[in-house]
Amino acid sequence: MTKLDRISERILRELSGDGRITNTELADRVGLSPSACLRRVQELERSGVIRGYRAVLNPGSVGRAFVAYVAVGLSDHSKKSQSAFERAMTRAPEVRECHNITGAIEYLLRVEVPDLGAYKVFHTDVLGTLPQVTAITSYVVMDSPKDERA
Question: Which of 87, 43, 92 is nearest to 70 (CA)?
Fold first, then answer.
């Protein structure tokens, strides 16, 4: 783990809020010269603290207005079963996030599709056909008053 000082933490906070900020503006906000700021950012990238930059999309504008979190339980807890499930989720474009978690179920998915009908198809034709899946619980997102995913 990379040790971060206060300036690096401020850089990360600013970049998390606006990944397109200019280096000059970033340097001004964190109290560094532009060249020192650029070196810091490059080191954070090189060390893997900053893994990348991406655009934050409006799901409704790109045909993914229906969002659900799906809790999935597996019948078999072997590595083989988990790997098979994870491969299937990697291939499913509807699955935007797949997390292996602790608790009563093994996986939590974030699924984005155009509408309820498309979710039903995913639920039945993707999740419902996997032999290792034993439980599916869906939580439909009605609103997201706070969402800091980038």
Answer: 92
